[in-house]
Amino acid sequence: MKPKITVLDAFTLLRDDIKFWQSLEALADVDYYDRTMPEDIVSRCEHSDLVMTNKVVLDKEVLSRLPKLRYVGVLATGYNVVDLPYATEHGIVVTNIPAYSTDSVAQIVFAHLLHVVNDVAYYNARNHEGRWCASPDMCYLDYPLHELSSLTMGIVGLGNIGMKVAGIAHAFGMRVCAFTSKTSSELPEFIEPCALTDLYRLSDVVTYHCPLNATTEKMINAEAIAVMKPEAIVINTGRGGLADEEAIATALKSGRLKAYCTDVLSTEPPSPHNPLLAVSNAIITPHIGWSTIESRRRLMDIAVENVRCFLEGKPINVVN
């Protein structure tokens, strides 16, 4: 008899990717749900040997009611949705999907940055309203534009994504500084390691690629912003919890920051009262940095391989 898998939030995947589902169904009997509310988790998983989740939380209370469960496959790199100590104590293997979205997230960093420095969307909208047609000159310029090669980028955290961002910034001709635990000998010559305060002081663009933990929570705060240049652009594609959103909104309104570009918010989906939603120079995308087609297919291929290796008794990408 095949083992049973329940996929709790399949909406995060490419539901029309037949190859993925065929590959998974070759390994196990699969039940998949686009979304699962907390009250439905146990009833949907109580007969499952394996469970796959992206954002559905499997805490101690839930796991304790799933005695058949042997494996949790997190469909993401971060695995804080699972109570790891409980899973480990009860012999439940937990795996994740490492480094699948590096190129995708690095790309949205520069999508945000280019949006601010070139404002293509603004000019496109004005032109469709007839602005260029009415111009007495061959062009018009409402805001100053900047070359990236004139700017310094400060990167907080040099994991896979941070390193990719650094390489792209260097290709644009930017000066690259980084706050990292890596030593100079471990870095390419074009990356200048520096203290966090120095990075804030030097950088025209500050981008965050560090994990969310007790040390980094709300590190983008009033004290940090006070050290930055008033024309600084701050980019957060890491975790919403890295940001003190009230402090950032205040700085944006007062002109203490040029722009805050983020793909993540402290609560997702956000409350309509989130202070950043009322500020025009907060540029917000709905946590889509990871979700290019190529990135999701890479995620799905790794997810299947994680299951296959677990069933063969040789689990990979284990986080507990």
Using the alpha-carbon principal axes, give the shape.
globular
Structural class: alpha/beta
* SS element count, helices: 11
> Helical percent range?
25-40%
Helices and strands, in N-to-C order? EHEHEHEHEHHEHEEHEHEHEEH
The gyration radius over C-alpha positions equals 22 Å
Summarize model confidence as the mean pLDDT: 95
* Sequence stretches where pLDDT stays below 50 over 5 or more residues: none
Number of strands: 12
Largest sheet: number of strands, sense, barrel closure:
7 strands, parallel
User: What fraction strand?
Assistant: 5-15%
Strands of the widest sheet, in order across it, are 8-7-6-9-10-11-12
Determine the N-to-C terminus distance.
Answer: 27 Å
Q: What does this molecule look like?
A:
With 320 residues, the chain is of the alpha/beta class. 32% of the residues lie in helices and 15% in strands. The protein is built from 11 helices and 12 strands. It has helices at residues 18-25, 41-45, 60-63, 84-89, 102-118, 120-128, 160-171, 196-202, 222-227, 245-254, 293-311; strands at 4-7, 29-32, 50-53, 71-74, 93-95, 152-156, 175-179, 191-193, 205-208, 233-236, 259-262, 282-284. The strands form 2 sheets. A 7-stranded parallel beta sheet has the order 8-7-6-9-10-11-12, with helices on both faces. The protein has a 5-stranded parallel beta sheet with strand order 2-1-3-4-5. Helix 4 (84-89) links the parallel strand 4 and strand 5 (93-95). Helix 5 crosses helix 7 (160-171). The radius of gyration is 22 Å and the shape is globular. It starts with a strand and ends in a 9-residue tail after the last helix. The model has no long low-confidence stretch (mean pLDDT 95).
